[in-house]
Each structure stands twice: as C-alpha cells, then as structure tokens.
Amino acid sequence: MDDHVSSLQHVHTSNPVVTVSGLTKAFTGGKTVLRNVSLSISPQECLGIVGESGSGKSTLARCILTLDSFDEGELVLDGQVVRGLKRNELKRLRSRLGAVFQHPAAALNSRLTILQSLLEPLDQLKGYVPSYMKGMPSGRREIAAHLLGMVKLPASYMDKYPHQLSGGEKQRVTIARAISTEPDFIVLDEPTASLDVTTQATVLNLLKDLQDELGVAYLFISHDLAAVHFMSDRIMVMKDGSVLEDFAKEALFQPDRHPYTQSLLEVFSTCCLPTEPILL
Ligand SMILES: Nc1ncnc2c1ncn2[C@@H]1O[C@H](COP(=O)(O)OP(=O)(O)OP(=O)(O)O)[C@@H](O)[C@H]1O
C-alpha cells in the first residue's frame, strides 16, 4: 500500500470528528441563514439537530460537507482546518465524508446499476482496500455484496436499477454507499422524511445498529423531535439560523428547556419509532 492510500486509513482518537466554530453564512443577495453556529461531534456520537423548516439545518450540513462555502467561522474535519486546503486535499477529505439525504431517488443515478452506484465513492479512492474486505476476495461484486448485506439487502440487488427498488430499499443503498469508505462521520439529513411510517422505523433502526457496529459518528438532522430523540446522544435546537440550545438527550423533558423546544415537545409523537427490534 503506498503512502497516499495508507494515509486514508483511520486513526481513532478521542478528538472531535467535526468542530464548527462561529459559522456564519448569507446567500448572495439574501438574508443571513446561519448565525454564529458552533458545534462539536465526538467519535461514535450522534448529534441531533432539530428545527422548523428554513432554520438552516441543511445549509449547515452542506457547509460541514464542504459542499457550500461560509462567510465567517472555522470548520475542522478529522483534525484538519478546511479553509485553505488545497484542491486535492479537499477532494480526498470529501471522499471520506458520508452523507445520506432525504430523497434517495435523487441520490442514485437512474442509469447506473446498484453495483455501480454503490461503488462510486470507492472508485474515487483508487487502491483503497476497505478493512471489511481484508483477507477476503475483493472484486467489485464481492464488495457490493458485502455492502448490501450490511444494510440487509440481498446480493442479487446489485444488478438492479433504482426504479426496481422501493423508497426504503433505495435509502438502504445510499446508506450502504455512505459507509463504503469507512467514514468516521456521516451526515444524515432527514434520511427518513420521504418514507412511510413503517419504513421510517426500519431505516432508523438500521442506522442505529450500523452506528453500534461501525462506531461511526452521526449528524442527524430532522424536523421530527421524536426521531432526533430516538437517534441522538445530544440534541441541538435551531431557529432562524441560530442555535437556541444544546443538551444531552436525557434533558429533553426538563422544565427549564427553551420555550421553543417546549413548543416542539407539544407535537412530540413516537408513532414512527421502533418499539421492538424490527427484522429487516
Ligand atoms: N441556494 C440558496 N440560495 C438562497 N437561499 C437559500 C439557498 N438554500 C437555502 N436557502 C435559504 O436558507 C434558509 C435555510 O434553508 P435550509 O434548507 O438550510 O433550512 P432547513 O432548516 O434545512 O429547512 P428544511 O427543514 O425545510 O429542509 C431558507 O430561508 C432558505 O430559503
């Protein structure tokens, strides 16, 4: 393995996988959508962000994924300050960031087979052998079969096209793709919002099991406080681009919560959450 490839392998430390300090952003000619946002996510932790539509959750996620720029503040990913990175350094960093978005159909190219879509991120990392394939035959079909198995889909799905899969199955493929490069950290931006209630519960359960298995950290974004409470270790509440408060999930029902958080609690519903382990 050459130096370039070996430098991509994990070094697990207790340093945060993501640190955002004082991040501020306005779209050209528009209002400020992020105001002095700071957060930090530790290895293996899930930080949930909840807030009404337009509060800036997705813009924050896109900034952290280095897909959007920001005006002020600092972003540190995997110990590297992002501002000022050279193009190839940024490309390498990006290839190791996992992301799952709301609409799986939009995330999968309709002309590619599931195998081709699944292996896109690994194809960017030429020569990288994921640790889950060490000591095993690591041809493309073997890797695809392994990844499909991780999300409880049959290996035969690798030869299908996205239109042949249900919404929940497509989302499981995007989750398998997100974990394929063994990221330390995955952004989950409303990953279940386009799914029916039963499938939402199944996908949330899968994401939680994968987190236990892989030790990955999540940024879980949702307007659904119950889903955020189910998934997260800590919860951050956003409104109008600002962080209102940030607390351990156990503190959600405490009486000193911000009035806005209390108003979200009034519509707290656990109907979409898994109550029993769900067999996928
Ligand atoms: N590309 C853009 N150009 C201009 N304004 C934008 C752009 N993207 C988002 N905005 C604005 O930024 C604000 C925050 O949007 P964002 O999508 O981050 O909110 P959100 O909390 O994720 O909302 P939702 O839950 O509906 O996805 C909104 O007022 C939105 O209209």
Tell me what the structure shows.
- The structure is a single chain.
- The protein is α/β, with parallel strands linked by helices.
- It contains ten helices and ten strands.
- The strands form two sheets. The protein has a six-stranded mixed β-sheet, sandwiched between helices. It has a four-stranded antiparallel β-sheet with strand order 2-1-4-5, covered by helices on one side.
- A hairpin with a 2-residue loop joins strand 9 (234-239) and strand 10 (242-248).
- The structure holds adenosine-5'-triphosphate (ATP).
- Adenosine-5'-triphosphate binds at residues 27, 30, 33, 51, 53-59, 223.
- It comes from Paenibacillus kribbensis.
- This is Peptide ABC transporter ATP-binding protein.
- GO terms for molecular function: ATP binding; ATP hydrolysis activity.
- Residues 18-265 form the ABC transporter domain.
